[in-house]
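Working notes for the structural subgroup meeting. M.R. asked for a predicted model of this chain before we commit to crystallization trials. I am recording the input and output together here so anyone reviewing the notebook later can reproduce the run.

Input as submitted:
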Amino acid sequence: MNKLMGFLELKEMCLPSIPWKQYTGVEELNTDFLWTIRSAVYRGCDLNLPRSVGKNAKESKVFADQLLKKIGNNGMVIYYPYFVAKKSGTLEIRNEDIIIEAVKEDLWNLVTYSDRDVTIIIGKNQKVEYIGNESFINQAELKQLLKHVPEIRRIFRDDLLQGKSALLEWSYALPCNSKKELLDDEYLVFYEARTV
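Returned structure, recorded in token form:
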């Protein structure tokens, strides 16, 4: 499953996910918010694709228009309101195990800089093992992440039976306005799903 299929799959799942839309060039971006612009390809390598994160509406539209021309018929450009991540990580669901890795703030701290505050491994007997800061993810946050596991297992059932894993990226996030002033309450959001 590539990034595009993951975006589409997330939209169909009963998971809290980013409210992404496809960018076609005619959309006007609300100036009250900052925006994230990403791309997904139909085929080929879909790692480290160009993206713009947390830019104002004008900059985001310019970037999206350029990306749309560059990607052409080989994929699609998506956009969604930027959010401020308080904690982020990955949720890997294997046939019998669940592995949660978490880091302070943006997921890029984990995937780009290899920072990690905690790894939580939940075995087939529900035995929980912590590596790192046990208190980084509190019990309410852990419970909220784990309540989505049955739905993820259902969606990725065939892949899991083949020995693959479902890997989802998530954040505990806050919406913000164009000045990066935080709005509302913290919420859990999933923004990428793939099989590995």
